[in-house]
Amino acid sequence: MRLNLTLTSTLLSTLGIACGGDDGAGGTELADTSGGRGSADSTGNPVPLPPTVSEIGSVGLGFEPRAIIPVDVDGDGMQDLVVVHQASTDQLQILLADGAGGVAAPIVIGTDGPLAGAAAGDLDGDGNVDLALMLESANAVAVAVGDGAGGFTVGTPMALDGFAGEIAVADMNGDAALDIVASVRAMGGGGGSIVWVSGPDLSAIEEVASFEAAPQTLVIDDFDGDGAPDIAATLGEALSAALVRGDGGGGFTPTPMVSAGVWLGSAASIDLAGGDTRQLVAASLIDEAIAVFSADASGFGDPEVIASPGGPFGLTVMDLDVDGNDDIVVSAVTTSEVSVHVGTGAALASGQLVLGLPAAQRLGALTPVALGASGRPALALLERGTVDVPGTLHLLSSSP
Q: I want to staple 262 with a disulfide (CB 3.0 to 4.6 A). Which of 96, 244, 284, 288 is the partner?
């Protein structure tokens, strides 16, 4: 499959950049007709042109793949992929790296019930990767213990006081053991909460924050610059995001919800300015926008909302153009395109680069991956498919 690279009309008219010829490697080159000026950000600083991006492989996955987790599950030093499927499918798929920049055929792992989400890490301290699972029909958290060879055994579920939501893992209390953080939707009404399960025993669920709206995506990073991990959550139905500040010792301080004025879903942390703190960036499928939140000790401030045409569904952060700055990559539902908001180290460049996938059916989650030895950025993209068309994993790679 060829990726057709075009720039938005705003950038074309402003910068004089046109699409050029085929690079002969399955991608399409961008030609710079601006006399070497490249593009520029909102402050006028020059922005290098992005690299060529092309597909290097694809794998059929079956019905409705919904999330990708890149992690070395078999201990061979190469990053593998764990694929979580829509709730109607009681399985995970493990795609082991083949050592040549691709992946082997999927290995199916039964999960004793449909999943709302999953996260990966060494949860029991034995050196092997385990999986934290959100069991949707059981409304429970479970740990799938890894054997270090790509196999997993699902343990006893821990019941949640509400409907299962998202899940993440991180060391929240500084004891060098991974903890589980999860979102819960309240039963019988609106609202929800964030809970955590402290490792390494992982035996008790404790609530750390509650909200008037149910948390959607969870992102863990140091957002307030105090050196301790915090929990950021998008709250889609409230058109808001909220920060739960961590103190690094297992203490948590919820801060008020902050409205973006747009529905928020997929999210990630990003360093836009090269400072000591991270920002939260979230996608709005309904309002065709992304919102960027910065935080201090009082929580998130009012966000910057940026147009992102096409209905962004999946969102990830990576240095796609290898200039040392974070870029925002989103998958759009209505246009079946992957778009890149280029970071400059001080801001986001105006407009966006669009990577078209004309044959795609309902694009979904995407994430950076490191499957080969080329050293170039690579991206795993899920095509969710339809009832009649199976979902597919697309592996994309950039070149200079």
A: 284
